Amino acid sequence: MFCLIIPATVAELLINQNIAGWLPWLYVPGQILHIACHVAYGAILLVLSRENNRYRTSGICCLIAVTASALASAFSISDPDSSSWTIIFLLPAAVIALVGEYYEYQGHAEILIAVDLVLSEKWKSLWKWFIAMFLSMFGIILVMLIFAFLGILLFFAALIGTIVVSILKLVYLYRTAKRFQEYAKG
After folding, report:
1. pLDDT, tens only, 41-62
2. Are 2 and 167 a contacting pair, CB within 8 Å?
3. How far apart are CA 76 and CA 93, in angstroms?
4. Nearest in space to 166 (alpha carbons), one of 1, 5, 4
5. CA neighbor of 55 nearest in space, from 1, 12, 91, 6
6. Which 3 state secondary structure label does DSSP give 23?
7. What distances in angstroms separate CA 34 from CA 18, 81, 107, one per listed residue?
8. C-alpha angle with apex 77: 73 to 79, nearest 5 degrees?
């Protein structure tokens, strides 16, 4: 799972609208890489479901979300004016991805209870921070409509918080993998 982060990040850069504007020929390969990384991540979660059933739900959510995202992308490529179709696929995909993220964090926390209680609690705490950053973005949109400057400042603070949560997820994934390698040896 940890190893998929680098190609997924590259894919995110390739499908970024700014980069796609400069180098449009990289958009489709970026989409393919993006889909492949998410399918692989979902498949890994399904394999991990042998250890904890929460991973099964997370893996299924991941695969559904990437399918919906791919369909939305296909509609937007075939018909650039199809924003209503895109939203029809992306809103449920975002909710499903959020549910999948929850089950992944809880799965990590549950399997770690017997091995490393401190790291298990960190996963639970990280979920709270993840959802706080996610929900803060909606609140910030409302603030931006009323107080633009304050909204922009809050947006950047939430963006930094989101980046920190993402980095912590990587660190915790790495620590979780190491902890189970040590546990398997011992």
Report:
1. 999 999 999 999 999 999 999 9
2. no
3. 15
4. 5
5. 1
6. coil
7. 17, 23, 24
8. 115
